[in-house]
Amino acid sequence: QKEVEQNSGPLSVPEGAIASLNCTYSDRGSQSFFWYRQYSGKSPELIMSIYSNGDKEDGRFTAQLNKASQYVSLLIRDSQPSDSATYLCFNDMRFGAGTRLTVKP
Amino acid sequence: GAVVSQHPSWVICKSGTSVKIECRSLDFQATTMFWYRQFPKKSLMLMATSNEGSKATYEQGVEKDKFLINHASLTLSTLTVTSAHPEDSSFYICSALDLVSGADNEQFFGPGTRLTVL
Description:
By secondary structure, chain A is an all-beta fold. In chain A, about 0% of the residues lie in helices and about 55% in strands. Chain B is mainly beta.
């Protein structure tokens, strides 16, 4: 069975720090990976998508994909309190457990 | 970007009644939609894949007779929770693939429906 694994945290970082979120997946043939952010009681919203090995940057967010090791990560630079949310790794219609991030002012 | 709506956004019903949730793609046609369920402090779990014009594909452990899915048009999928019980209380979220303008396998999520069964 295809699985997506995340460290459920919680993860707490001070404002301005880098938050690092990690995810591993079981399907070696997977081609597309997504990071979603979910605020409490709300639907997930797309943060980043990544399809190729390496890094992909979008503003303060960087997604990293390593297909050989079957992991994908998300870095949030200059973390802000508004980044406090649950971050979900998504692959092959499966969500990871989510990592709860708290950014402290 | 592609927009997906859900109706109702929340519903409270008595145990034993049936509840229908609608999922609509507003500005694109969706041959495939997905239904997820999320319990408090848990992740989203895929319930079923809804295919326009054919039967839905249910995930293991999801009762197809209890969670009826109908995808009668390219813009509408419905999930009916039949004979609802308190343990069915959850946050139900649908998503859709926009094969024309969306990125590969990118799903667009609806705002969710919170179901409370008394």
